[in-house]
Amino acid sequence: MREATRRPWQRPRVCGLCRLCQEQPRIVIFDEPTGTLAEKETEALFNTIRLLKAKGMGIIYISHRLEEIKEIGDRVTVLRDGHRIRTLSVAEASIDELITLMVGRELKDQFPRHRRPPGEVALELRAPAWLPPALGDPRAIQEAVGHLLDNAIEASPRGGKVELSVAAVDGAALRLCVADAGPGIAPADRQRVFDPLFGTKGQAGMGLTTCHRIVEAHHGSIRVDGEPGAGARVTIILPAAPAVAHLA
Questions:
Q1: Domain 122-239: which CATH class?
Q2: What pLDDT is recorded for position 5?
Q3: Residue 139: phi, psi to the nearest 5?
Q4: Is the dihedral of CA 19, 20, 22, 24 positive or negative?
Q5: Regarding beta strands 173-179 and 161-169, do their DSSP bridges make them parallel or antiparallel, or are they unpaired?
Q6: Going by C-beta distance under 8 Å and a sequence separation of 6 or more, which residues neighbour residue 97?
Q7: Per-domain boundaries in the chain
Q8: What is the average pLDDT across 110-114?
Q9: How far does Cα 38 stand from its chain's mean position?
Q10: 207-217 helix and 138-155 helix, angle to the nearest 10 degrees
């Protein structure tokens, strides 16, 4: 998926940061600010946050990416089910400890990655010869698709198939579907699959949570369908970049 020229959705964000530096408020809140940022832009944002901190501003930084909290935070407060669980020093808190506080129990395997030998699961791609470019950050979109494929491959049995299909929707959006031949999803779990660290196999990860955050940041939608024993299908709708007129 290609990147829209000059990333127009980021211009208001840059202007907002410039105003912050000039107005110098006492407290600034950042809510999942890196969801659509590329690596260099994320580092530029962190440098700006460090500058604001040096000016004496209070920073409240909300993120599911715990490594970001460790990089730029001083204190971290864990919230769960609407309650404050604990506040502790970032320097003293480990990632494992933060995850335990978030879910209320110790997890031995938070982010499992099971690499299958080639040929165990077939990947089928269905896409037309031409698609409009997605309006968004390619790095973030690739991260979301990568999580979906990892989950689908892990859920599929040996000899199964994972299908990735992409199509245009009325020229104004892109529809991306990832379907697997795994055990499916129980109706009771379908509303919880985007919860942080939710897992159906006794293991927990942030893959679908990350996908949900990225898609929301791109003003898209994500839906999970599937019945027990019939596999699962994840559908993402993303806005397409507007066509660019070429003058003769």
A1: alpha beta
A2: 38
A3: -65, -45
A4: positive
A5: antiparallel
A6: none
A7: 8-103, 122-239
A8: 48
A9: 13
A10: 150
Q: Which phi and psi (to 5°) does residue 206 adopt?
A: -115, 10
Using alpha carbons, select from 83, 116, 120 the residue that is nearest to residue 101: 83
Structure tokens at 69: 């909290």
> Torsion angle, CA of 128/132/134/138, rounded to 10 degrees?
70
- The residue whose two tokens read 């999580």 is 147
Instruction: Give CATH for domain 8-103.
Output: 3.40.50.300
Tell me: the pLDDT tens digits for 43-86? Answer: 888 988 888 888 888 999 988 777 888 888 999 998 877 788 89
161 pairs with which residues across the strands? 122
Q: Is residue 178 a contact partner of residue 163, using CB atoms and an 8 Å limit?
A: yes
Place of tokens 């107005």: 23
Mean pLDDT, the chain, as a whole number?
77
Distance from C-alpha of 9 to C-alpha of 134, rounded to nearest angstrom: 12
The residue ranges of DSSP E strands in the chain, in sequence order, are 27-31, 58-62, 75-80, 83-89, 122-126, 161-169, 173-179, 221-226, 232-239
In angstroms, the CA 195 to CA 209 distance is 6
27 or 243: which leads in pLDDT = 27
Place of tokens 């690739």: 142
CB-facing half-sphere around the CA of 4: CA atoms within 13 A: 20
Q: How far apart, in whole angstroms, are the C-alpha atoms of residue 3 and residue 137?
A: 6
